[in-house]
Design a protein that fits this description.
Blueprint lengths: L7 H15 L22 H5 L2 E2 L7 E2 L6 E6 H7 L4 H4 L6 E5 L5 E5 L10 E5 L2 E2 L20 E8 L3 H4 L6 E7 L7 E9 L2 E14 L2 E12 L14 E13 L5 E16 L2 E2 L6 E2 L2 E18 L5 E15 L3 E17 L3 E17 L5 E3 L3 E18 L3 E12 L3 E12 L5 E12 L8 E8 L12 E6 L8 E13 L4 E18 L5 E3 L5 E28 L2 E13 L7 H12 L4 E12 L2 E10 L10 E13 L2 E8 L5 E2 L14 E2 L1 E9 L1
Parallel strand pairs: 6-9, 27-31
Antiparallel strand pairs: 1-2, 3-8, 4-5, 6-7, 8-9, 10-11, 10-39, 11-12, 12-13, 13-14, 14-17, 15-16, 17-18, 18-19, 19-20, 20-22, 21-26, 22-23, 23-24, 24-25, 25-28, 26-27, 28-29, 29-31, 30-31, 31-32, 32-33, 33-34, 34-35, 35-36, 36-39, 37-38
Length: 686
């Protein structure tokens, strides 16, 4: 699987990855049996409550001891969901809004402010942030992790900025892959269907000695195009290929080192909208996007002589995005250190330091979009402290912490956090939290000029004889960070070995939200007479959200598991401004929010080696995208004739021939629809 690199920066990082692979000694074939990997599927609900998680406090702790709205997706959940991508898997999390925009484009957010360019959700893979500095969101089409290699996904709804920093505003998604020791041997997987035209994964794991394990993999897929409202294909098919490795080494009883790296290249097409002051004023060409990149990550875990634990992690990545409106080259270097120490019998202290520098080179081939300056360097320096205090041992804990973060755009951003956890007995837990978080402005919010709408002459919106062009601009504007103050309460109960419930309520107040206002119209005569209405950006919006999230996990029989979740979300932004554009943007945010979501999964073992799983979902109407409420059903039949071979037949979106889920934010591109899908997947392990 070859990947063409665009420039020398990619070649240097790729060479480092290849050198790391070549440094691994050749592994002689051994017939010695390997111990089976840790199997989350075999755990009872009580054991799942004792599962060690790390995202809430940046340390290992029991799931039931966390004072946050946490949801954990296990590898078995992923396998039995029938999903082929991470966004599909995330649909099972209460509080997340996930909509498919096209073949490979997704809108994923937590607790409101949805859209493809949602910018208030931090996503990490093994501690490496994958959010884009270009727009503070995630390009999901470039994130194709081998799903079989994911150990678990920890999803926190609510702020986590006091530990994780900027952009951890509405939530954190932490994707944790398996250790190399748990992926030994050969894995080969292939599949095909009407939407999934074809996909394949090949992975090999070995161990040069008892203290060293590694894996290497290659993966690729081709996905079919979406359709329009009439069922006609729109040509937004996609191709992707990834390759990578992970190397784990135990230095001694308390020290471990990890080295990992990945390369990728993806190609996709998508309908877009371009406006002009010349007739026909708007066009919808089929745009192209090519993305490629490489990253290398190293982590060292060390146990000090006093029993405290320290971790040092560094990664470097280089990426390229080439599309019709924008071309970006970006290099990012990140260094993170943290130290955990017990102070007496009541304090569990974690503190750390973080530094990141990201350099870009951005060109904009189209005249309708401009970003200046062409090159810019962005830096973040931060320090955090987090203390868990046992007020009443085994009963009442106070968690207090803060992160001080300085970035080169807005300066110092303090982000505190205060939580209280009450566990009256091993079965019940009640928690409350107050947090403050900030979202740092993105590169596109500084020095951008974008022509986003034209009103033709003598139209309902424009009775004048000249077209009216709306031009968004942030030139000369110094944007502020968006702020959030959040209050949450939660209840979690492990009612025996067969039933677990988790309830969360929250109220959020946002200030300094990014917005725009209308400037005075100007009459321009080139290339034809038209009115230019500038829309300078500002931070004039505020918002309130409140909601309720519930999940239930029930095993009525040893071979039958039911998982249900419900989300209720209300968002309110003021629309009383005298500025029509500001009111429209506020209304659009409210109209883009899904008010009600329901998910019900049934996992049933028919007989040894036979599984039948159903997943029913209901999503209420999205007014912004004119997407009506829909209910959909996925089904999976799994057959495992031997312990090394697994065959799955999956049907997706079975209740409708096609339906819409979301739209392209403010690009006014034609809405696309998701087709009913069926695919067959075969997995062989040795």
């Amino acid at each position: 699987m070859s990947i063409h690199w665009a420039d020398l920066r990619h070649r240097r990082l790729a060479a480092a990855v290849v050198a790391a692979l070549c440094a691994i000694p050749q592994l002689a074939h051994s017939d010695a049996p390997q111990p089976p990997p840790f199997d989350l599927a075999s755990l009872s609900l009580e054991q799942l409550g004792n599962l060690q998680v790390t995202s809430v406090s940046r340390k290992a702790q029991r799931f039931n001891d966390t004072a946050a709205a946490l949801f954990v997706i296990t590898n078995e959940d992923i396998r039995r969901s029938g999903a082929t991508s991470i966004p599909e898997v995330l649909r099972m999390v209460p509080g997340l809004q996930v909509g498919r925009i096209g073949t490979d484009r997704w809108a994923v957010t937590a607790r409101g402010f949805a859209g493809r360019f949602a910018n208030k959700l931090l996503v990490q893979i093994d501690g490496r942030s994958i959010y884009s500095h270009l727009f503070s969101g995630v390009l999901w089409e470039t994130q194709d992790v081998v799903l079989e290699d994911i150990e678990r996904i920890e999803v926190i709804r609510g702020p986590g900025a006091a530990l994780w920093g900027a952009n951890a505003v509405n939530g954190i998604i932490n994707i944790i892959t398996k250790r190399a020791a748990d992926t030994q041997g050969v894995l080969a997987q292939a599949g095909a269907g009407n939407r999934e035209k074809g996909f394949a994964t090949l992975r090999y794991g070995g161990k040069p000695d008892d203290d060293t394990q590694y894996r290497v993999y290659a993966r690729g897929y081709a996905r079919a195009e979406s359709v329009d409202a009439n069922g006609a294909g729109v040509g937004d098919d996609s191709l992707s290929k990834h390759a990578g490795f992970r190397l784990d080494r135990r230095i001694d009883a308390g020290d471990r080192a990890t080295l990992s790296g990945d390369t990728y290249e993806s190609h996709s097409r998508e309908p877009s909208t371009r406006v002009s002051v010349l007739p026909p004023y708007v066009a919808s060409p089929l745009g192209t996007e090519t993305a490629r990149g490489v990253h290398l990550l190293a982590r060292y875990d060390h146990t000090l002589t006093d029993g405290s634990q320290a971790t040092l992690q560094a990664y470097a990545e280089s990426g390229f995005i080439g599309s019709d409106p924008i071309v970006e080259h970006r290099d990012t270097y990140d260094l993170d250190f943290q130290h955990r120490r017990l102070l007496g019998s009541r304090h569990d202290l974690v503190w750390g330091l973080h530094y990141r520098v990201s350099r870009d080179d951005i060109t904009t081939p189209l005249s309708t979009l401009q970003i200046a300056p062409r090159r810019e360097e962005f830096r973040i320096v931060s320090a955090f402290v987090h203390d868990e205090i046992a007020l009443v041992p085994q009963r009442l804990r106070l968690i207090a912490g803060a992160k001080l973060e300085h970035n080169s755009y807005t300066g110092m951003e303090p982000q505190p956090n205060l939580r209280l956890l009450w566990t009256p007995d091993p079965v019940h837990a009640v928690w409350a939290a107050w947090s403050r978080a900030a979202r740092t402005p993105s590169r596109s919010e500084r020095g951008e000029t974008f022509d986003f709408q034209v009103f033709p002459p003598f139209s309902a919106e424009n009775p004048s004889p000249f077209p009216v062009l709306l031009r968004s601009t942030s030139v000369g504007v110094e944007p502020r960070s968006e702020k959030l103050a959040a209050f949450e309460v939660g209840y979690r109960a492990q009612l025996g070995a067969r039933l677990a419930v988790d309830l969360t309520a929250f109220a959020n107040h946002y200030t300094d939200l990014h917005s725009s206002t209308l400037g005075p119209a100007q009459l321009v005569f080139d290339p034809v007479p038209y009115f230019l209405v500038p829309a300078p950006s500002d931070n004039s919006l505020s918002a309130h959200t409140r909601g309720f999230e519930a999940s239930l996990d029930w095993r009525p029989l040893d071979r039958w598991r039911l998982q249900a979740s419900y989300t209720l979300l209300h968002i309110s932004l003021p629309t009383t401004s005298s500025d029509a554009l500001r009111n429209a943007l506020a209304q659009a945010e409210m109209d883009h929010t899904v008010r009600n979501q329901l998910s019900l999964r049934s996992l049933f073992d028919l007989a040894p080696g036979h599984q039948f799983d159903l997943w029913l979902r209901h999503v209420s109407r999205i007014a912004f995208s004119d997407v009506p409420a829909y209910t959909t059903l996925d089904a999976r039949y799994g057959w495992r004739p031997t312990k090394n071979f697994d065959l799955s037949l999956v049907g997706q979106d079975l209740l409708h021939e096609r339906h819409g889920e979301d739209n392209q934010d403010f690009t006014f591109a034609p809405p696309l629809q998701v087709r009913r899908g069926v695919y067959l997947r075969a997995t062989w392990k040795y």
